[in-house]
Design brief:
Structural class: mainly alpha
Largest sheet: 3 strands, mixed
Shape: elongated
Strand content: under 5%
Number of helices: 22
Length: about 500
């Protein structure tokens, strides 16, 4: 008891907060008292039954700190037992991202809490205040307080959208949502109005910011953007915004590579974030309704990604693995570029594989990598984009494959050479899960495998490539055949000079 009184006196003299300075106290007696105070405050928000049970333990002279800690951890979890967690913004697993961090991390602007406060992104963080002022000035009748209050109402829901616990305090988190959301909308407004932005429109600004806005780990929930746009819109449009918001069509115009996109026919509340909007815009309309149907089958197909190539080819069924472009070329497969702007319009018929143009640059590398990561983070049956990148992963093995497709006008390289492009396709589908027996291109895989494994097709292709691959070879073959025919005729008339089949003996 005397030790307890001495500890209280030390606390009063130091004038420190018990909970805040628990870890800083070097006196063991002070630490024990602060621990007691901290434990007692933690039980204030516990159910009465738990508090009563805890008090009984204290009367017996024993405290189960582990039990209290576990109970608090469970009580802090959002949602209800046996119900899906409302997580929509994930971290990429460390084992996947380690070798290609630059494709997952922002280079110029942070959006959301994962990279908030990074020193190298501070310049754009300061610029967000200018964007906030410009955004507010577009409708000065709406006060700043209105935006802040609406963000406060959505803050808890926004926290629950992230796959990691967000430790940012409430005010800073609300401010982050406001600044990041207004930055995205203001960036779109200036893009739409062709208004110059000093920082965003510098040579490296546009492509870099666009890439940053479509990173899986660099997102805020779409309902934040929707709410800010709703508040900003004139009162006469509020009812329309509630029924059918045009924010999707507006932001769709900001998406890069418009020629290969289709404006998705979905409601705002079905979109998780900007990357999800891009994903839906790439999907064929027939597949948009499959994006979020639960898929209970637990596939072990990810194991195939880690088995050496030779083992995969030896033990796989015909539909699992297809040869690379060079091998298909040797088997008689012809590659042609079709006129479709849609990435997924790939067909194979009678030995001819038709594919749309794909331009490979730094932005497309970043977007493709994060689209695969996003699709893998979702529970869905039809992983069409993963199937697409696996197809490319199979087709491209070396720079020779890239060169062949480049020659056919199917691939166009910007800021990359053939070796770099081959490395990109080889890494794109590494370690991602795909059900090889049932995916978007499984029938295509089977058709290609059947054609390329045919002995007749391979023999005919070798003949054509060896003797008819250029005009001079063709002329030589024709001349050789002609001479052979003349030799046979000459021999015949030498043996049968009268031409009636009677041999000259």
């Amino acid at each position: 008891m005397e030790v307890y009184k001495q500890s209280i006196e030390k606390l009063q003299k130091a004038e420190i907060s018990p909970v805040k300075n628990l870890d800083k106290s070097s006196d063991s007696s002070v630490r024990s008292v602060l621990s007691f105070v901290s434990d007692s405050t933690e039980t204030d928000n516990m159910p009465k039954e738990e508090i009563q049970f805890e008090e009984e333990e204290k009367e017996d002279g024993s405290i189960d700190r582990l039990r209290v800690s576990v109970q608090k951890k469970l009580s802090d979890l959002p949602g209800e037992p046996h119900k899906s967690q409302p997580i929509t913004i994930f971290r990429v697993p460390a084992s996947f991202r380690e070798s290609r961090k630059t494709l997952y991390e922002p280079k110029m602007v942070s959006i959301g809490p994962y990279y908030h406060g990074k020193e190298e992104l501070q310049a754009m963080q300061d610029h967000k205040w200018w964007c906030l002022r410009d955004f507010l000035s577009r409708n000065p009748e709406i006060s700043l307080e209105t935006y802040i209050q609406e963000m406060r109402k959505l803050a808890k829901r926004a926290r629950m959208s992230y796959g990691e616990k967000i430790t940012t305090n409430d005010d800073d988190f609300v401010l982050m949502l406001l600044l990041d959301g207004c930055f995205i909308l203001e960036y779109f407004f200036k893009f739409q109005d062709k208004e110059i932005d000093v920082l965003c429109d510098v040579g490296w600004g546009g492509p870099t910011i666009i890439s940053d806005l479509f990173l899986l780990e660099n997102q805020i929930p779409f309902f934040i953007l929707h709410k800010l746009a709703f508040i900003h819109s004139p009162p006469e449009k509020h009812r329309y915004c509630e029924d059918k918001c045009d924010l999707i069509n507006d932001l769709f115009k900001l998406l890069p590579y418009q020629e290969m996109l289709i404006s998705p026919e979905v409601d705002c509340d079905q979109i998780h974030h900007l990357l999800h909007l891009y994903y839906l815009s790439m999907m064929p309309k027939s597949h948009n309704n499959l994006n979020h149907q639960p898929f209970l089958k637990r596939s072990l197909s990810w194991l195939w990604m880690r088995i050496p190539e030779n083992s995969k080819r030896k033990h796989s069924s015909s539909s699992v693995i297809i040869p690379c472009v060079a091998e298909l070329h040797d088997a008689g497969v012809k590659f042609k570029r079709n006129s479709s702007p849609r990435l997924f319009d790939i067909s194979f018929n009678k030995g001819v594989m038709q594919m749309p143009l794909l331009v490979v640059d730094n932005t497309i590398r970043t977007i493709f990598t994060n689209l695969v990561a996003f699709e893998q983070s979702q529970i869905m049956k039809s992983r069409i984009f993963t199937s697409y990148v696996v197809l490319w992963n199979m087709l491209i093995d070396t720079s020779t494959d890239v060169s062949l497709l480049e020659h056919k006008g199917i691939l166009e390289l910007v800021q990359h050479n053939e070796e770099q492009a081959a490395d990109f396709f080889n890494e794109l589908a590494d370690c991602w899960s795909l059900d090889y027996d049932d995916h978007y291109y499984s029938d295509l895989f089977s058709e290609i495998q059947r054609f390329s494994s045919s002995t007749w097709n391979r023999s005919r292709a070798k003949l054509m490539q060896d003797y008819f691959n250029n005009p001079w070879s063709s002329i030589s073959v024709v001349a050789g055949v002609f001479l052979l025919i003349l030799t046979v005729v000459q021999t015949y008339y030498t043996v049968y000079p009268d031409g009636n089949g009677n041999c000259k003996c």
